[in-house]
Amino acid sequence: MVHSYTMLTINADEHPLMRLFHKPADEKRMVAILPSDRYQDWLEVSAEHSKEFMRAYRGWQLPHLKARFQFERHDLVR
C-alpha cells in the first residue's frame, strides 16, 4: 500500500490572512481546505464538478482567527 497526498491550492490575493504570507509582487496562494463532512463527496465527485470544492475559507472559518473576526464584527456594530 502506498500512502500519498496532494495539496490543491487556490488564489488568496484577497484572503485576510493568507495574503500576508507572500512577497507583495507574488501571487498569493492557500491550500483548499476540505471540511471533514465533505470527504466522501470529494471522493465521488466528477472532474467537471470538482471546482465547487476549490473555495477559500473565510478568515472567521479558520479556528485561530475566529476570535479576531468576532471582535472586529462586534466593534463595527457599536
Give an overview of the whole structure.
The chain is of the alpha+beta class and 78 residues long. It has one domain. Helix content is 23%, strand content 8%. The chain is built from 2 helices and 2 strands. The chain starts with 8 loop residues before the first strand and ends with a helix.
* Total count of domains: 1
Weakly predicted, low-confidence segments: 71-78
As laid out across the biggest beta sheet, the strand order is 1-2
Q: State Rg.
A: 16 Å
The helical percent reads 10-25%
Report how far the terminal alpha carbons are from each other: 57 Å
Overall mean pLDDT score?
77
Largest sheet: 2 strands, antiparallel
Secondary-structure element series: EEHH
Structural class label: alpha+beta
The beta-strand count equals: 2
Q: Count the helices. How many?
A: 2
Residue share in β-strands: 5-15%
Shape verdict: elongated
Gist of the model:
Helix content is 23%, strand content 8%. The protein is an alpha+beta fold.
Please write out the topology.
Blueprint: E1 9-11, E2 29-31, H1 39-44, H2 66-77
Descriptive tags:
single chain, disordered C terminus, 78 residues, 23% helix, 8% strand, 2 strands, two-stranded antiparallel ribbon, alpha+beta
